[in-house]
Design goal:
The chain is mainly beta. The chain is built from six helices and 20 strands.
Length: about 375
Amino acid sequence: MAMLNIPFYLTLMIGPVVPIPAPKIVMDALSGVTVTNNTQGPSGFQLEFTLSTHSLLHTLFVVTSGTAPLLRVLIIATVNGFPHVMMDGVTTKHQISGGQGGQATLTVTGEDLTKVMDLIKLNGVPYPAMPAEVRVLTILAKYAMYGIIPSPIPSLFPDIPIPIDRIPVQEGTDLAYIRQLAEEVGYVFYVDPGPIPGTSLAYWGPEIKFGLPQPGLNVDMNGYTNVDSMSFSYDTASYSMPIVFIQEKTTRVPIPIPIPNINPLQPPLGLIPPIPTNVTVLEDTARLSPMQAIMKGLAASARTGDVVSASGSLDVVRYGWVLKSRQLVGVRGAGVAFDGFYFVKSVTSTIKRGEFKQNFELTRNAIVSNTPVVLP
């Protein structure tokens, strides 16, 4: 653990499976940390160490990664006395650069814990008489040693195959199969680190865009401004209405059904929703049950429905909190069209000695705030 600057400090833990606090020689050489948390695709991190060309630190990392290929890294930022688990992942790459003046830079790159699920293909593993959520729970149970806590949400319309009819078998890695099962029912899958260091929540379920918001982002509010920069855009060109096909049992004729962007788990975050400019035909839905096809259509509609986006940067010391992805945040001072609540799509945190910056991307599915006050 190394103090960076009050009111925040950084904790770095490293180990093969159970990470332990990094020794002083490692923390003294640490010059920068970058953590990227995405809602789409894997999240990742980079650790930069400035060290002497005669240092054994880079050799230690390489040798350790050779004997334990999945070197686990836990990054915790404590802001105003509250710990935030920024990343729980494994290293994937080591790179040495520089070397002039007796100094070199060691860059350690890694991904979140979904990486450990994407290493070995297990084609043909059977899951007889198991609905999708039970298969997900069974697969995730083997990663308990990493502190991963499974949290599968049962699908609204479970498909329990009869063994004499068919037995589902896995194709690809555990991660690929879990994501395939999620896509079939319109769900998402991700591993969210924390809130207790050393544990992570493996969520398999519908994407949820409501809940308690994070501290608000203030734009152009003089002394109350807590962001360095922020820009907004409104683009409806990519918004489309999906059309799913439901097969009539008697005649086997596929019936097209348009799916509007109406989802109780992703309510409108503004007063004026967009109008679809095109349609997308989901042809593979005819083989699904009617409700499964509708769930997949709702997920497809939500992916293109976020027509309002915002991007910016902030100083965590001024903001007083660590902005996190997959949660809501309010915006003030941006004008009538863009004030209100947003869903945090991605956050990239950059930590150096005495400095903690974040770049962020926000999205929502309508313009004009639907709430008169943004709290907190």
